[in-house]
Amino acid sequence: MENTKAIELIDKILKNLDETGINTDTLIDDIKELRGYAIEQKVPLLVKVLRYTYEHLEEHQSFLIPLLNDEPLDEEDDIEQTEEVSPLESLKYLIALPRNLNNKGNLADLKEYKELLMAY
User: Does the reported pTM lie above 0.70?
Assistant: First the structure.
């Protein structure tokens, strides 16, 4: 995102996640505020992903979508990675993606999160 207030909000959300984990009380409000910036900047994919994210958090009180992984080198790596990754890491990754929407990889990951959230 190009808005400095949106970047500051992303940093705040990530800091809060590091300090308190998934605390839905403030987290949902912060994600809704971030969604407002996405609406202002006319980024429909991000608007949807953020809405699906806070609705998922409201419903489950956690983030149950696994971290997206690149193609694993082999099956053992895939199993190890799955065991180590927490809902917190997946949510932190998702929240960090909007920092650089010019990166095609970030947009692809947002699309993948959208599909996973819709299917959950």
Answer: yes
Q: Please report the sign of the dihedral spanned by the C-alpha atoms of residue 43, residue 46, residue 52, residue 53.
A: negative
Residue 108 to residue 11: CA distance in whole angstroms: 21
Print pLDDT tens along the chain (120 aa).
Answer: 889 999 999 999 999 999 999 999 899 999 999 999 999 999 999 999 999 999 999 999 999 999 988 655 444 444 444 445 589 999 999 999 999 999 999 999 999 999 999 999
Q: Report yes or no: 42 and 74 within 8 Å, Cβ to Cβ.
A: no
What are the structure tokens assigned to 119, written together? 């299917």
118 vs 78: CA distance, rounded Å:
24
As a whole number of angstroms, the distance between CA 46 and CA 107 comes to: 9
Q: In one letter, which amino acid is 34?
A: L
Q: What's the gap between Cα 24 and its chain centre?
A: 14
